[in-house]
Amino acid sequence: MRREARDSHDGFLDARSERAVAALAHGQEGVVSSAQLRAADVTQDAVESRVRSGRWYRRHRGVYSLGPPRETWPARLWAALLACGGPAAAVFSHRTAGALWHLCAAPTRIDVITLGESRSTRAIHIHRGRLEPHEITHDRDHGLPVTTPMRAILDTAAATRDAHKTERLVHRAAELHLLDASLVPPGRRGSARVRAAMATLPHDQPRITRSQLEERFLEFLHDHELPLPLTNHPVNGHVVDASCRTPG
Known about the structure:
Elements: H1 2-10, H2 15-27, E1 31-33, H3 34-39, H4 44-53, E2 56-60, E3 63-66, H5 73-83, E4 90-92, H6 94-100, E5 110-114, E6 124-127, E7 136-138, E8 145-147, H7 149-159, H8 163-175, H9 191-198, H10 212-223, E9 230-235, E10 238-243
Parallel strand pairs: 5-6
Antiparallel strand pairs: 1-3, 2-3, 4-5, 7-8, 9-10
């Protein structure tokens, strides 16, 4: 009772709890979840006291940042993952998974597949769906749970009618040696669009892009129905950002 009264009054944490929370936050880009705090014997009164004092910040429901929230891509990912129940309950998917595999730009809203009770928010898009064990892995940069490249491509293709976006995912996957036609089963949602995009590869070599600016340039040309150039292509002994074949 004495300890709980101190927690409620001034947000006191004993040394063991302080160390446990700091270690968790260090490995999770500065964020921790309510469940993790409870496991570290941190009372809700202590949490609320630190939020009121400005030492901690509420990032999502049940997710707190120890100090001002970081707006980096890894920090956003960790906050979203913890808001959806953590690595055991959620997996990054769709365009978020595509971004983790370097197939596309990071989306504004983070995509997550979960079978839990999480709901979509302005920052997190919850998708419901069953994942086979072989469709779940961890990304190379952060070690976070993510769908495989081909599952990410299929999910994204199923969610958009923009053939250009699907083609760019497929071309980028081919460039990075992540494309596997055997993992595009007939009849699955998104499969027809992915196969149509793959059919362009023999006639139109993968366009290598080295920045999101180059990707936006290709999208601009496509949207205005202009010919797409080869990118980062050798011309007269030099590699140029973009080159177009002249008629004749």
